[in-house]
Amino acid sequence: MSIVHVSEKELYAKLEKCMAGERVLIDREGDRFSARIQQARGMDATVIPEKQLGNSDKSSDDISSITVPYETIWELEIKGVVYSRLAE
Prior knowledge:
7-stranded mixed sheet; globular; SH3 type barrels; alpha+beta; 7 strands; 2 helices
């Protein structure tokens, strides 16, 4: 796995084009967690925290998603490449 450091603008451009299921790292007021994208649009993304996926024996329809603004997303993993946003 390789890590590519990108600007905030570059990360947002990649988020707009990403597919459902891609992994992201989210930081919400110091609480970091990884999640899988359901849908990315505009300036926010609907995601399912991986903790819910790993501990769930529910059907996919019963798992709750959350919507997060792009500015809380710090990493995006696509095909083994992690795009990591630089702190600006």
